[in-house]
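Each lists sequence, tokenised fold; shown next:
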Amino acid sequence: MTQQSVASPQPGATSDKLDAAVLKVAGVVVLGAIMAILDVTVVSVALPTFQSEFDASYARVAWTMTGYTLALATVIPLSGWAANRFGTKRLYMIALALFTIGSGLCATADTISELIAYRVLQGLGGGMLMPIGMTIMTRAAGPHRIGRLMAVLGIPMLLGPIGGPILGGWLIDVASWHWIFLINLPIGLLALVYAQLALPKDAPEPSESFDFLGMLMLSPGLALFLYGVSTLPEVGTFADSEVWVPMLIGAALVVSFVCYSFKPRHPLLDLRLFRNRRLAVASVTMFVFIVAFMGAGLLFPSYFLQVRGESTLHAGLLIAPQGIGAMVTMPIAGTLADRVPVGRTVPFALVLIAAGFFTFTQVGPETSYLLICGSLFVMGLGMGGTMMPIMTSALRTLTGPEVARGSTLLNIIQQIGGSVGAAVMSVILTNELNGSRPIPGLAGPNGEPVTEAGLAIAAQRQPELAQQVPDPTLIERGLAFAADSFATTFWVAFVLVLLTFVPAAFLPRRRERSRSHDDQPGSQSGEPSTPVVVH
């Protein structure tokens, strides 16, 4: 990629201040990031609505999240090659257009399968927004201002957990679920115009070959494996071919990818980087944490909606303390990441997350909202001090040519962790809910048995159903069972958070000199020195 496409600091510049030119470019990147990140959190409150609208299980509708994050993981490694091939400005605008078109199509979906397919299309655009935006921003700011850069790009990450659920809940309550996607259309058009005016032109240039074979093994392999896992609650046994066949094929593709990826000169994922101890430790810590935190995080709105009977807007408001907590600590963590070894800060942040998570292992149908919201706030404090320091520390040990590959690796691990977390936690919850006792003589519209938990959850959304039930204790037992199902799922997530302490104990406790300055971005390899950002 051309090095003169965006103004960059003069050699030897030491100022950490982001000037007006950098902030102008940052405005474009932040706007695109807000779209992509908001769309994850907006949809989180809509999953129960999708269940009722499309008459699907929770494990099935969770694929609107799993498919989206798998699509992100697919295009992240493609972004660097495509940016060289087509230019960063052109590719960024293509990603914006693809995301906006995908949003419009999502609003037209008539079946859950269509919605999942359109979410994948939307994710293909959203997955390129952050890596290409980060490439543009890193060139503008320079490697010595990565900490300040992370603070600026933390804005959409703070707005997402706070504003996304509230916005999604409000739109569903006052209009319909379609509007959580339609709202992206005007924002996307505005971002396209802004990008055309604000981003400087850059010329495409020859780039290294792209590992399409690796991509054709990794992405379908993960999708097939997770599809088999998510089908388990519907068929009830691993022996069913709809479960074990895709799982087996998917696992074979992923294993083949791992073996193959050490052979190409420029693999899809440079697994050789795991020889760097700090990067390996950071990757394991991040993956286990993401599976637990992101997977269980999808269930918070569902608990408020299905067990407590709250409206989608109220569910969004009740989740906001988590984002507020992250807002408090994320800027502090971004500054400390440049000064204090992460091995001295991250364990304290994980303690906060574990303490907050424990409350959810005890939830019932009448647990105090003060306790729940306080726990979400504490978890947010921990979240804000966890991810950014871990990844920034890992990238700091890489040389200039390695940073882009390390950034891609960490980004994909993060997205895969989110996909695995969404699939696994939704499967556990669905399986637990399926264990509820059927109500004799009562069947659903398709002849399926109606369980006590299913009836109680439906009655929370349609109070008139409760009045038609001759035995009121059925609703009480059903809600208690549903709450226990959520608590069991949260126990799994809590144990995973505790396991995160094991790799976190090996994070560096001494400050080490950054090696990202050893080679200027693209000086030898033509690869941008691009930091990673939570998406």
Observations:
- Residues 78 and 210 are 7 Å apart (CA to CA).
- Residues 1-14, 516-535 have pLDDT under 50 and may be disordered.
- The chain has 21 helices and two strands.
- The beta strands are 438-443, 449-451.
